Predict the structure.
Amino acid sequence: MSEVDAEELCDDITHALGHSWFFDPQTITVAINGGAVTLMGTVRSERERKMAAAAAWAEPGVTDVTNELVVA
């Protein structure tokens, strides 16, 4: 498996979340450690929380997703 570019992966996930009308990119922070992604911040519903995790998992190179998003 090739080395994951953490900055590019973070940008790709942030871009994917920002292009969805479900999410306000101002309320979600993406942290990357290798292929492990941590989502932090707030969303409006449990459905949005699950969808954000699914969007992160969909990016090539992601090996783990920790979903710390809070429904507010």
Notes: The first helix runs from residue 6 to 18.
